[in-house]
Design a protein that fits this description.
This protein is an alpha/beta fold. It is built from nine helices and eight strands. It is about 45% helix and about 15% strand. Helix 1 (about 1-20) crosses helix 2 (about 40-50), helix 4 (about 90-95) packs across helix 5 (about 105-120) and helix 6 packs parallel to helix 7. It is globular, with a radius of gyration of 17 Å. The two termini are about 20 Å apart.
C-alpha cells in the first residue's frame, strides 16, 4: 500500500499549493479521504500516513469496517458524504461524526430526534444540488438559505457548512461560486466542495474541505468485482 502513502503526500502538496495560490493558509483546508469500496488494509495505510478524516457514501458499508477502525485509532473523524435514508438515521448518528448530506425536512427532523435520543451532537452540512439534477440528492439552491434557517430554528440543528457535487459535464467553477454565495446568505462558515478532479479549483473558490478518493486510493473496483 505504498502508493496510498505517496498519493496522500501528493494530494497534500497540491492542496497547499492551491491554498497559497489563493492567498490562503493550507492548514485551513481539511482533506476528507473518501474510502468508499476500499477495505481496512487500504485505510490503515492512509492512517499510518497521518490521515485522520475519512468519508463514506453508504451507512451499511461503513458499519462493516469503521467501528473496529475507530476503536484502534481514537482520533479518527468519519463523514457521511452520500445520501442518508431516514431509516438509517439511528445507525448514522451512532457511527458518523459529521453528516454532509442533510437535504430535506424529514431528514432534519429525524436527525434532531435521533441525536437527542443518543445524546450525540454531530456536525452537519446541508447538501445543495447546484446543478438541479433530477438524479442527484441535495436541496434546490433557491431554497437552501431558508432551509438552513429552518434546520436551526425549527429543529435545533447546528449547521456548520454546505456541500455540493457539480454536474460531471460542466465547469465546476460556477457551482462552487454559487455554493459560496449561498453560504454567505445562510451565515455558514464551511464549504465542502471539490473532489479528485477539481479540488484545486474548489480551493480557489473558498473550499474549507475537499473530498478526495481516487487520487489517494486509486481507481475503485468495478461493480461485481
Amino acid at each position: 500500500m505504498k502508493d496510498i502513502i505517496l498519493n496522500l503526500e501528493d494530494v497534500r502538496q497540491r492542496i497547499a499549493a492551491a491554498a497559497r495560490e489563493s492567498g490562503r493558509r493550507p492548514e485551513d483546508i481539511s482533506l476528507v479521504a473518501v474510502s468508499k469500496t476500499f477495505g481496512p488494509e487500504a485505510i490503515h495505510s492512509a492512517i499510518e500516513a497521518g490521515q485522520r478524516i475519512f468519508g463514506e457514501n453508504r451507512v451499511q458499508e461503513a458499519q462493516g469496517k469503521w467501528p473496529a477502525l475507530k476503536e484502534q485509532c481514537l482520533d479518527l473523524e468519519l463523514h457521511l458524504i452520500g445520501p442518508l435514508q431516514s431509516n438509517k438515521a439511528r445507525e448514522a448518528v451512532a457511527l458518523f461524526d459529521v453528516i454532509q448530506t442533510v437535504d430535506r425536512e424529514k431528514i432534519a427532523r429525524t436527525l434532531a430526534a435521533e441525536m437527542e435520543k443518543q445524546r450525540r451532537r454531530l456536525r452537519l452540512y446541508v447538501q445543495v444540488n447546484t446543478g438541479l439534477e433530477a438524479q442527484k440528492a441535495g436541496i434546490d439552491p433557491r431554497e437552501a438559505a431558508s432551509f438552513v434557517a429552518r434546520c436551526r430554528e425549527v429543529h435545533g440543528l447546528e449547521i456548520e457548512g454546505l456541500m455540493c457535487i457539480p454536474p460531471l459535464d460542466e465547469n465546476p467553477g460556477p457551482h462552487f461560486a454559487l455554493l459560496a454565495k449561498i453560504a454567505r446568505e445562510a451565515n455558514v462558515e464551511k464549504l465542502s466542495m471539490g473532489m479528485s478532479g477539481d479540488f484545486e479549483t474548489a480551493i480557489a473558490f473558498g473550499a474549507t474541505g475537499v473530498r478526495v478518493g481516487s487520487a489517494i486510493f486509486g481507481n475503485r473496483p468495478a461493480a461485481g468485482q
